[in-house]
Structures are given as structure tokens and as C-alpha cells.
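hiii so my PI (J.) wants the whole complex modelled not just the main chain, which honestly fair. so below is everything: two entries, each one labled with what it is. i double checked the lines twice but i was tired so who knows lol
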Amino acid sequence: MHLLLLEDDPDLGQAVAEHLRAQGHAVQWCRLLAEAATPPPPDLALLDLHLPDGDGLGLLRQWRASGRHWPVIVLTAMDQVSDRIRGLQAGADDYLVKPFDLDELAARVAAVARRMVAPHRLAIGALDLDLERGTVQRDGQAQDLTSMEWTVLACLARRPGRIYSRGEIEERLHERGLADASSNSLEVIVSRLRKKLGAGCISTHRGLGYRLDG
Amino acid sequence: MAEDAATVATWSVQRRLRRQLLALLSGCWLLASAAAGWVLWHETNRALDSAMAETAEHLLMLPVSAYPTHDAVHRQMPRNIPTDDLVYQLIDAQGLVQLRSQQAPLTALAPGAPDGLRRQGGWRVLTQHSADGQRLVQVAEPSGHRRTVLWTSGGWLLAVLLALLPVAALGMGWMLRQAFRSLEPARRELASRALHDLSPVHSDDAPAELQPWLQTVNALLARVQALVHSERSFAANTAHELRTPLAAAMAQAQRLVATSADAQHRAAAQALLRQLERLTRLATRLLQLARIESGVALQRAPVDLVALTLLVADDFGEAQRSGRLQIQVHQQPLPVQGDIDALGIALRNLIDNALKHGGDEATVTVHIAGDSLRVADDGPGVPPDQLGGLVRQFSRASSGVTAGSGLGLAMVDTIARQSGARLLLQSPDADAAPGRPGFSATLDFSATR
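here's the output for the full assembly
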């Protein structure tokens, strides 16, 4: 898997890059935001937030705004829940607080890698998600999703197996300007997704939220 | 608070003002009365003196034939002389009284006196000679008469003052109470604000006298705000500055462990890693303490307990993947009022404790039910007599940050109290299976509604 690592600390960057290379990944290591503004599309980006030339979240938002939807794991010293929310709202798929265990990082990278079938394409169960184009195939058949449905699916697909609460998913819809006044719109979207993608693809966890099972 | 101030009552501006105003009013009244009395005295004297002079003129103009006989006059002389009347005597060149008013004495009032006014034996006497010097008239008035008039007027002025004082006291009391009531809105605003609210007090509708006070209060609030802010940014900056080198050192140590072929080197690298992990826990705890002491938990915003739990659980990737950390929702969760970061610290500590003290085999479950969060493990539990000792109020001074699980729970307890919630510890846990008593810590937010 091709990884983009953005980390200004030389010792940390070197150890992370080395560890991930030892796992068989190709790592492109940048120390400045400027170097990573328009990178060759990676399969996954590891992003530090405090960089000498600016804020990593800004770059993340810039990526997302310009349609670059590759998975991003934020690596940061900011350990508060609100920092994590800010990171996820900016479009991060996962958030790891420094100091982290290299094996934990490798496990999270591996979870993405396991589903990576080609650049920008994740396979989750019978689904094949093209992150760059925002399309999904079920058993090789392209499925027509509305932007609301894609947003919910992409949110759940950040980490298959992780439960996302109603609030988190609705927040995501809200950011994309897709918020709906009716409170049961999320249920409607999920039921439509189940119809298109297979009944078992999204499970409901009473009180907690929804999970993409693959 | 107003009642407290009234009962303590060291001294009151209102009472002092009322006293001073009454004293001033009385003083002014007395001065004014004295001035009025002085003017009255002089004006009365002038008027009465000119009346006496006029009487004298008229008497001198009488023809001699108008005089009665001496005997008749003398015989008419009454024994008692009323003191409040003007009396007169017409005296001839021999000093004999030719004519006199009824109350006038028989003999000349002021024999040999020159023209003009003088006091003589209890009389104020005006002497006036006729143009030919053959006759003179003496008009007199008892000298006590005018003083009596003056004292009567003075008495009335004082009586009015005495009657006025209680009315003035009541009126001033009312006015002062009204005036001091205008201070009340600002006080009420200060008193009613929430513990964590450090925003400036609104001073637009407060009177000018209160403005400097409110400005001082606002300056003080701003200083506290700045202190809290600097404490918080200290915690945030220090987090970055401490965690980045720790992360680098730990990553390098892990690389060393992973790449070292030599068993001895690997053991050394593992020891290094263990110490770094300890250092990390210490740094984390210090930063958490700094945040809590800066009062983050006093802030209020709606917090979704489910989202909070899911976000905090993300930190325990390994425990989640292995199924050691579970999340269960029992009742429709309600949003609670609190600070998401402070509650995050609390929940993280509870999960951390449960995973550590429950043992490797224990499963930790976060139960969300309505407005309570219960973190339960099915480990060996804690003897009931030790439960109380687990939460002792922590302070950076009295207990080292490296102290065992107690500090973590004490910190959670502080966050709970600052959040208006309660921390309840239970062992065995409510859902305990036989042989596995377990331990649970509940954050109960029901009191925050």
C-alpha cells in the first residue's frame, strides 16, 4: 500500500516510516505541508496536525474540498475529545494520539489495507467503494446512490466494524449541507442503502448507532 | 445575600446617609430660624419703635386743655400694670405727670432722660420733648414684651421642625431605599450567574455611581478569565511539547525492540520502552490534572453520552478489537450538560482503571442508560470496606501524581462534582455473574437537570 506520512519530527517520522516499510508499505515521508499539498494520490495518509508551516487540519479540509477522499489517519498530540471531534469533522477517518504504539498504528493501517483492492478502492464484504469517484459496486454491479446515501456510506466506511452514532452521521450530513429537518431521515437513508447494498451490510445497534459490516 | 448583609450589618450607607441628612436638615432649619428670629427682632423693634414715636408725636400735639385734672388722673391709677400694653405719660416742665394712660405709673418713667430711647426699670422708654421744651412725653413698653413675642415665634419654628423631622425621616428612608434599589439588578445578575460564567457584567442600565465598581468587577473577571485561559492553553501547549518527544522516543524504542537481533539489547530496549510508557502515563495524568484544575469541567454544553463513549473508546483500539471493551445502551440516552473534554477524561480514566484492575480476563462494559454512564468490569472486584477509600479528594500538593488507582478515581470524582454529576462506586457490580463480583463506577447526571 502506498502511504503518505506527514510528520515534522525527524525521529518520530523516521521510526514510523521504517516501521511501516517493514510491514511492506511504500511510505512517502513529507515534513512540510507545502510538500503534501498536491501529492500523487496515496492509498492512505498519516497526518500530523502541528507542522512548522501550518495546521494539518487545514490541509485535510483542502484535500476533502478538492475531492481527494483517500483515507486519512490523524497522528497528533492533541488528546482531548473535542480535538478528536474537530479532526473527524475535518474529514479524518481515524485519530491516533501521540505517543502511540507503532503496532497500534500498523493495525489501523492494516485494517484499511485489508480492504484496499486497488488504489482508492476499498472492498467491504460484497461492496467495492471507489473513494476517489464516490461510487460503489455491489457484486460488481454499480449502484446508483444519492449524495445523502453516499455520505452516510462513506462515513460508516471510514472504519468498518466501528459503530457510528446518529449524531456523528448527522453531523457529517450537516457538513455537506445535506441535513434534513425530519428526524427519521437517517433511518430512511439507511433503509434505502440496505435495499441497494444488501440487507446485512449495515447493522443497527440499539441506542448506539450504525455499523458497516464487511 | 441581601438578608445576610442586613443581619451582619457592620454599617449601612443608607442609615448613615439618612442620619446625616436629618442632622443637616435640622441644622439648616435651626440656622434659618435663628436668621428669621434676628430679622424678626429687628423689624419688630423698628415697627414698634416707630409706633411709639408716632404715639409720642400725637400726644405732644394735644392742646393743654385736653389734659384732665391732676387729681382725676392720679386717682385713676390702677394698681396692677399689664405688661403687654403701650403706656404713655405727658409730663410738664416741673416733672409732673399731666396725662397718662391707665396702666402707666404715677411718677415719671425716666425722669430727666434726654430725647430718644432707653431702658429704664423694666421699660423701654421713648422720651420726646415738645418743640417749646415745656412738655415732654414718654411712651413706654414693658421690655419683656418683645422678647415674649420673639420666643413665641421661635417656639413655633421649633415645633414645626419637630413635627417635620419624622416625616422627613420617613421620606428620606423611602427615597434612599428607592435609590439603593437601583444597585440591585447588577447584584442579581452577578449572583445568578453560573459558576463557570466569566463573561463581563452588563453595566448599561446601572447608575453612574456603580459603573466604576462594575468596571472593576469586569476587570477582575477578565483577569480570572485570562488566568483560566492561560492555564488551559498551558495544558494544551504542554501536551504538544511533552507528547511529541515522548512519541518519538517511544517509536524509536519500539523500533529498537522490533529490529534488535540481540536478546540483551532487546531486553534493554524493552526496559527503555516500559519507562517511557510510565513517563507517558505520568505526563498524561499531569496534563489531565492541569486541565481539571483550570476548571474545564465547569463549562456547560450539551454532551451526547453515546458519541462521547464511542469517541473515547476509539482510544482503546486493542481492547475493542479483542472484545474486552463493550458498549451497551439500555435506555434512550439523554444529552447531559457538561464539558465533553472533562467528561472524556473521566470516562477514559474509568475505562483505563477497569481494564487495568479487572485483570487480563475481565470484560469491561460501558452501560449507557438515560443520563448515566456505568463502567463495569467482571474482575475480582474491591472489598466493600475499601470502596470509600478509593475516592479521596485529590490535590496536586498532598498526593503524588504517581499514586495508584485512587488518584484516577479521585480525579473522576472531581470532574463529576464540577459537572454537577455524582460518582458512585459499586462492588460487586449490579450485573455480576457468580464468582466474578466485578466493580463498577457510575457517573450519574440525573441531578444536573
